[in-house]
Structures are given as structure tokens and as C-alpha cells.
């Protein structure tokens, strides 16, 4: 039923393409027709489209890990700490963030770069978290089912298309979707105010500077006035008013003043993104100028080293990295950078040594473990990678990156049964169940699996064949 509903959603999105609308929240959810499980399933469908089909998805475990750490710190003190969240980043210079059904929150790289403090970035995430915890998308569908479905379709179109063509999306609104959006505008304004207030409370509870919220939103509004025909995307989907900003400022002023320094990780993430968004020569010039003005800023020096690596100036990068490591506190970001430089110098063994020590020093960093397994495979030590990845999979069985690494490592070891069994899990997590079944069929015929492994393959094959049949029935292809 859910896949049929989503197929309908997709067809509506194609028939009535529209610009993204507010995703506000907070209110009576008792009239919602969309259960939390259904909402999560819809979110999963959309996130699959983004992660596996949208080239703008930023597949950077280090950046994604930071955004998730920040987001989950906020979610833990929200008004629904039991809600599951998954944060991801889109490579897009526009200032935008969006909440999807079921706790998926996307952040544009441009928004991260535009945030002048970590509290500002946290304020946007807190606002989006509030949209999710009160299940406002579900309320829209429940209160006005047809208009709600159309608005949810608009959301999908906005995520997959309107990011890069706001003019086309706005034209589509005028062509046929404006009525559905206008019917919800009153709710949206109310819910946006509620999201501001809940987000502000979450920001304070998480230990951030609450003044980061009104200051960032006010800066966005000034940008909107200066560039009226090219307003920040966040303002198009979250309309700001002077009343809202004044309300945020008044509430923030009534809260205790707290000066909160930015974390080093926030500054490293911004420097990393900045070093990647321009052409190598341009990025190099930018960071050389920044270092000339702020020679002791560790994040700027980190960004310069990354820019030097992109420009092929590995000796300069090596010298800069050695100096940086002497001057600053240990960081997983710096260790990852050191390993990447070793790999650029074709020293995979050196990268393994750096990352092996780093994973012991920073055991909570999953991105370091991905990097270690990758380096082990490249260094000709796939057996070590298999041991480490299998250990991680015991507690992270739905981590697609781990399954990808396990498949690669087993391929290098010539273990075809294990290779195709792992690749089947990759496809299953992507929602490609027929492809997963095909991989398991190959694994059965590989001829190098023992009794226990083949038994596991058979059990998983039966389970996935049931999923394939269910999917075909939902699509009306099988009775």
C-alpha cells in the first residue's frame, strides 16, 4: 500500500510540479491520517532517490558524521527525543535546509558556509527538527488529504529539481499548484512561528547561543531584500516576516546570555567544504590570502593544506601539515587529512598506520573506520579490512558503506561467495531487491562458501524473494 501511495505521489509530482512549501510543525496531530511508520517509509523512499540518484548528494562520511553529531545533540533535547533522525548534506551553494517525512533532514553546503557560527547552523537544524518532532507533514496530509498529497509531492519535486531551477518551480506554482499551497499558508505561518519557538528552546537546552537564531534569520532576510529576485532558497520555503524575527529576538533576549565558542570540527568542516567548492587554483589563492591575514587560524591552515593537495603541491601540503600537527590539539579531521596526503603520495601503508592509530585515539569516529578499511584494501591487506568491517557490522548492520567495503575486501581475497553476499546487502539497502536476489544467486553458485555461509545465503535469499513478490503485487504486476 505504501509503495502504491508513493507511486501516486510521484505521479502527482510529475503532473503538478511545484515549489517547496514550508515544513512547519507543532500542533494537534490527533487528526493525522499518516502514521509514524508510514511517514518514515515515505521519507525512506525520498532519501533513496536522493542518495542513489541525485549527483548533488555529498558522499563525504566525515562531513556527514559532523552534521549528524550536531543534529543529534539537538534532537536529544528536543520535545521528542525518541524520534529517529538522519542528517545529510547536499552539494549546493544555495542557502537551504529541509525536513523530509520521518526524520530525514537535508542541509545544503551553502548554508553551512554561510553560517558565521556553529550556533547559527544549530539554529537552522533546531528549526527543522521541530518540524519533524511535531509531524507537521503528516498533519497536512491528514487535514486536507488531496491538498496534502499535492504538497508532499511538491516537497519531492523541490528536493530533486527545484534546488537548481527555482524559476521553473515558481512558474509551476503559478501554473496550477498555487491554490493548494495558498490553502495551507495560514497554517504554515503559524507553524513556522511555533517551529521558531521550539527550535529556540532546543538550541538553549543543547548549550548553544540562542542569539544565533535571530541573527542568522535576520541576515537571511537582509539578503532577501538586497537580492529580491534571487532570495535565499531557505526563505522561499520558510517565509520570514519581521514579526517572526522580532519574536525570536525578544525570546532570545529573555534567556540567559551564553557565549559559546565554535567547535574545531565546525570550523574544519567549513574549511573543507570551502576548499572543495572552487576550482583548485582559485581555492589555493583564497586560502593563501586567508593564511596571510590569519596565520594562526588552524582551520584556515587546514583548508590551505587541502587546497594544496588539490593543486598537486604535495610537498607544500606535507610541510604545512607537519607544522599544523605540532601547533594544535589532536583531531580526527587532521588524522584523516594526514592519511589522505599519504594516499596521494602513494603510501597506502603509511595511511594505514596513521588511521590505525587514529581509530584507537578517536574510537567514536565512524568516518575514520571507513577510511582505515579503504586504506587496508588499497595497501593489499583486505583480510584486515574484513576483520574490522565485520566487527562494525555487528552493531551497524544497515550501514551501506560497511557492506560496500566488505564486498570490495572479499573480492580482493577471491572469496566470491562472501563478495556477492555483501553486495546483495548493498543492493537491498538501496531498495533494489531484484538486484540483491541476483547477487545471492551468484553467491550460491560461486562454489567457495562453507555450509554455514551458504545456509545464511539461502535464508537471506528466501527473505528477499518475498520482498520482491510483495513489491510486484503492490505495483499490480503479480497476484
pLDDT under 50 segments (min length 5)? 1-32, 162-187
Distance N to C terminus? 14 Å
Strand order of the largest sheet: 1-3-2
Number of strands: 3
What profile does the largest beta sheet have? 3 strands, mixed
Summing up helix and strand content along with how strands pair, one would put the structural category as mainly alpha
The number of helical runs is: 23
Could you explain the architecture of this structure?
With 479 residues, the protein is an all-alpha fold. Among the domains are: 2-253, no CATH class; 415-479. The chain has helices at 2-15, 36-53, 61-75, 109-114, 118-133, 136-143, 145-162, 166-205, 212-226, 233-237, 242-253, 264-277, 280-293, 298-310, 314-327, 332-344, 348-361, 366-378, 382-393, 400-413, 416-429, 433-445, 451-474; strands at residues 86-90, 97-100, 104-108. Strands 1-3-2 form a three-stranded mixed β-sheet. It is flat, with a radius of gyration of 24 Å. The two termini are 14 Å apart.
